[in-house]
Amino acid sequence: MASIKDVAKHANVGIATVSRVLNESGSVSKETRELVLQSIKALGYVPNELARNFQKRQTNFIGVIAPSLTHRFTSELLSQLEQDLSDLGYFLLLFVSNRDVNKEIDYLERLKSQQVAGTIIVAPFISVERSYQFADLPLVAFDRIINPKIPCVHVDNYKAANELSVRLLSKTKKKVCFVGFAADPKSDAQKRLLAFKDVCKKANREFTVFDMIGYASDFEFLSEVFQQTKDCDGYFFACDYHAQLFLNIALNHDIKIGKDIFVVSFDGLKGTKNIRPLLTTAVQDMPAISQALISALMRRINNDQDVPEEIEVPYYIQNGETC
What we know:
It is a single chain. The protein has 12 helices and 12 strands. By secondary structure, the protein is an alpha/beta fold. The protein has 3 domains: about 5-45, 434 Repressor (Amino-terminal Domain); about 60-155 and about 285-310, 3-Layer(aba) Sandwich (Rossmann fold); about 155-285, Response regulator (Rossmann fold, 3-Layer(aba) Sandwich). The strands form 2 sheets. Strands 2-1-3-4-5-11 form a 6-stranded parallel sheet, with helices on both faces. It has a 6-stranded mixed sheet with strand order 7-6-8-9-10-12, sandwiched between helices. Helix 5 links the parallel strand 1 (about 60-65) and strand 2.
């Protein structure tokens, strides 16, 4: 099936030009318009419903505010968003807050003044009180609810972590531990930690929690976790990346994964799918998350006031070799 990129290439014009022709907006010469329409007919291109409904935008830029580029999940999400927005004829305008709420607010104000088509904010830190000044903007959040007027796309972190924790306890006999950013009150890992604790308490199992905040080196921190958990045989990691690093440390000490220790994690990153042992992890469906964010943003751009406050994207458990 032909895409907007194929049409642009066939007509030898930019994607934005094809988008303007489709939406009957912007300045396009008669000759160029005819050329684009001929390419559409020749390729049998059928405009995507999302693309047609984006026609009320003010520009073809979508602002995205991310907390960091170091987290592998965020990087994969940004890549997916860029691809999907590009297919619609839009450009991703990226801002990185480095988890600084003042930067988030500054970026939101800049995006508001620049009149971008809309904004997606990933794992926001902004408070409910300060967010209301932006509630009327075409704005959608991922993973953290800001306020009822701003739609939020997320997976059910608690349910997924509960399922993983039950599985971990069924395989282990000793103490189990949780590894992540446990002290960050705004972190999505909080819901994962809460589920882990609830399952352990219900099963009357001893557990410990390791908080990564304050450590400059992931490897140094995880090496300490390995040395301090000789009495543990079960590990719940808040993200795949740290689970994979820990597995490498354990394997270097001749630990048998899935026999001596058991490991579960969260995210389902692409980069871990071809690495052995295969992680047992809760997979967040990246394409589905991206489409949900874009669809919700489209509705906000079109002044739809009935966009749900919470939009839940399904997850699934990858049956790996680690638990």
